[in-house]
Amino acid sequence: MDFATWDIPAFEGPLAQRGIGVIAPFDLALERELWRWVPMEVSLHLARTPYEPVPVSMEMAHLVSNSAHLAAATRDVLHVEPEVVAYLCTSGSFVNGVDSELSLRKVICDAGAPDAVTTSGALAEVLGQLDLRRISVLTPYDEDLTTKLHDFLGELDVTTVSSDHLGLGGGIWRVSYRTIAERILAANHDAAEAIFISCTNLPTYDVIDPLENALGKPVLTANQLTMWACLRRMGLPIVGPGRWLREVS
């Protein structure tokens, strides 16, 4: 085939891609949802933390946030030259508090990433951008791990006015939209300025807009915030639902 005869001004190949490196816990099952949060010109390059034979718990949060594992996973994605590397895990980035979240980002940058984001760091960033000081929380975790999230928020001077947790030790990606919506409505509090849904393995994409319309306040979710923080560093607007986030992107 003679490409010279084609009536194409410049046949140079596919659209140039801009990369985000993603370090995910070994049990992540929502890669398809992640891709819904980014524009066509952005590629996601995933690396996973090592498998750990424990249920979702405080122990798992500590294991999947191991600094050596994060550094190794960062190096695994650097060859594709991502503009930012994200640690896509809520519990692993809040379990040891605000100072530890900062340390995790430093680990990623020290391993060679040009910039770093964590899910809980993105949460802190959005709460500051929207000046939110009172929120409701829904998690899929047990009570102990959920309390650690409250502690993290407290360090940010954010009050958890109401909270609910599903108490799941696994299979979080199987939770239905109906269950999530019902539990969010139950967890909502009149004094809450927003609702945060924790865990990057909990499907939330299609419930955000209906719930924001029903409640009249931001509904913030883990994957949404992580991708928002990455795209913001890349100078790109947010893709997908979330009216309040679009206003600060």
UniProtKB/TrEMBL annotation:
Domain of life of the organism encoding this protein: Bacteria
A Pfam family this chain is assigned to: Amdase
InterPro entries: Iso_Racemase_Enz_sf, MaiA/AMDase
UniProt-listed PANTHER family: BLR3294 PROTEIN (PTHR40267:SF1)
Protein's UniProt name: Asp/Glu/hydantoin racemase
Species for this entry: Saccharomonospora piscinae
